[in-house]
Every structure is written in C-alpha cells, then in structure tokens.
Amino acid sequence: MDGETSAVAAEAATPARADDLSDGAAKPVLGTSALLRSFSVLEVLADAARSMTLDELVEASGLPKATLTRIVATFARKGYLLVEDGDRLTLGPRLIHLGATASLQLHSWARPHLERLVDETGVTASIAVLDSDEVVYLGQVVSGHTLGTFAEVGRRVAPHSTAMGKALLGQLPDDKVRDTLLRTGMPQQTDRTITDLEAFMAQLTVVRRQSYAFDDGEQDVGVRCIAVPVLTAPRVLSMSLSAPESRMSISDAIGYLPALERTAAEFSAALRAR
C-alpha cells in the first residue's frame, strides 16, 4: 500500500463528524466545480467497471493527486468508495441504495411517456440504461395484445444483441464499445445475432448515422425491436418499441419512428427540467 492510499484508508476509517465541514485537510469543497470533480471520480470508476489504484485514478480523472486523495477519503468515510486489497479503490455499497432508488424514480418518470407511446403505436414501449456492460430494462408499458415480448423490467442482457443495446453503445466512443464487447464476448443468442466485433462496429456506424437501431430477432426468436437514444439525458439511456414479428413488420417499425423519437426527446427534456 503506498503512502497516499494508506492515508486514504486511515482517513476513511475515521467516523464522519460535524466538524468535517470546518477548515482542515479533508474539508469538502462545496463549490459547483468541486462537486463536479468529486462526482467525476465516481463516474470514472463506474466506467472502468473494475477497481483502480490511486495513481490509475489520477491518470484517468486528470485531477491532482492531493485533490483526489481528499475526495476519495471523503467518499470512503461515507461508504461511497471502498479501499480493497490494500491499495485498490472501488465503488462502495452506499451507491447501491442510491442507484436502486434512482432506477425506481426513473421508471416512475418514464411511465406516462411510455403509456402515450403505447396508445399511439399499439406495441410495447420500454426504456433501458447501460449498467457496466449490460443493458438493464428500467421501465416498460406492455401493449394490450395477449402475445407480448420478453424484455421485462429488471432484465439484464448483453448489448450487442438488442436494439436497445445498439442505441446505448452508439452514444459511446469506439474504444469503449470495443472494450465492452471484448469483455462480454458477444454470445450468440439466436441464429441472427451478430457475434463478430468488426461486423458489429460497422453496423454501429449505420446506427449512429440514422439515429435508430434494429433488433430483428437477434436476442429473442420472433421478436422485433426498434430503439433510439435518449439524447442529452443525465445517463446513457435508450427507448424502444417491440412486438412479435407477426405484429410489427420492418415498415411498421419505421412508421413508428417519428413517435418514438418525439417521445424520447420529450422524456429527455423532462429529465433535464427536474
């Protein structure tokens, strides 16, 4: 354990007190720019999807080591970061509660938008987020048809085989997309699943250009889905319409695209206004 990480661990073990806000080495800086720097540390760790040493975190965040040490110590004392294996930093358990609560709220906020979309199109509408390397379905309103689809709320799937995942990955730089797909291994879900990295990257170029993505039976046999990114949202989100192939042709899906894009834009604006 190096000296800086030892200091972080020692300070993290000290219970938080009211005078933590007084002058001192670990004083939290409450200005807007300081808050943004602090939360950027959590985002760097979340994007990395692994533990990091303090030096790695300095390089990835671009923050001075002294500043980063204070930020990490403050988050560690509150349980938002953990020091593991002597010198490695990882996200802490307190974030689980925040994430679960935020997911429930996001589902609640999205529901009226999804309901209007279902009323307009007659097929199932969903919203999803990219969580580490997986697509997580956070909200869904099912159409009134008995024959439905299979992506229920809470389901986690690999991103390469779904329209949702393609719309989510399309919002990331190529190097992060490649890293994600190398970690997931691109398993074959159906005989239509794209399992070749370069073929997928070529399709992602098209997705970015046209601003929507298709899943034509690539995740679940007989299910078709069209998805769009929820642009400028606080998180990397996508919204989709899905139905059995027998009830949604490709031309049907394209016809639904204006309503889907409008709803995604309205939801993004609603999130930014909160």
**Unreliable stretches, pLDDT < 50, 5 or more residues?**
3-30
Strand percentage lies at 15-25%
What is the rounded Rg? Answer: 21 Å
Which range best describes the helical content: under 10%, 10-25%, 25-40%, 40-55%, 55-70% or over 70%? 40-55%
The tally of helices reads: 9
Strand order of the largest sheet: 6-5-4-9-8-7
Quantity of strands, as a count: 9
Largest sheet: 6 strands, antiparallel
Structural class: alpha+beta
Report, as a whole number of angstroms, the end-to-end distance: 42 Å
Helix and strand element order: HHEHHEEHEEEHHHEEEH
Backbone shape: globular
Q: What number is the mean pLDDT? A: 81
Describe this structure in words.
The protein contains nine helices and nine strands. It has helices at residues 3-12, 32-48, 54-61, 65-77, 94-121, 163-169, 174-184, 197-210, 250-273, and strands at residues 52-53, 81-84, 88-91, 124-131, 134-141, 156-157, 213-216, 223-230, 237-244. The strands form two sheets. A six-stranded antiparallel beta sheet has the order 6-5-4-9-8-7, with helices on both faces. Helix 1 runs parallel beside helix 4. The two termini are 42 Å apart. Residues 3-30 have low confidence and may be disordered.
What is the secondary structure topology, with strand pairs?
Blueprint: H1 3-12, H2 32-48, E1 52-53, H3 54-61, H4 65-77, E2 81-84, E3 88-91, H5 94-121, E4 124-131, E5 134-141, E6 156-157, H6 163-169, H7 174-184, H8 197-210, E7 213-216, E8 223-230, E9 237-244, H9 250-273
Antiparallel strand pairs: 1-3, 2-3, 4-5, 4-9, 5-6, 7-8, 8-9
Which terms would index this structure?
disordered N terminus; six-stranded antiparallel β-sheet; 274 residues; three-stranded antiparallel β-sheet; 9 strands; alpha+beta
